[in-house]
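Translate sequence into structure tokens.
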Amino acid sequence: MQAKSPFASYFYTALVFRVPPCHIRHGTQESEKAWKMTAPQIDIYTDMLCSYCALAKRLLKAKNISFHEIDVTSDSNAGAEMRKRAEGRRTVPQIFIDDMHIGGYDDLYLLDKKGLLDPLLAGQSDNLSS
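Result follows.
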């Protein structure tokens, strides 16, 4: 008889639900509403040819986080808005979590590696210290 792999249920769940089981939330409707109300608004200013923009979007998608993408490739108004919000920075991506300027992909990646990105995404920005 063959021993059952500890990963068997993980792969089954991932295949059936098409998401990793760690992203499946079990709870009441009230807890679901509370989670949706506290989910931060993420704005990311991008350019269609920017590889760092693609990396930033991939990192957020891997965390199953929705974001609002603003393409500044041909929209000069969006570019001006980005520079104003980013205090004059012209490079993309520029990432904002609930109007808090994060910076570019390198800054987002560093926050993730330090373990500070998940609390930000959970709306716990007041408890963070760099």
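Note: Residues 7-26 have pLDDT under 50 and may be disordered.
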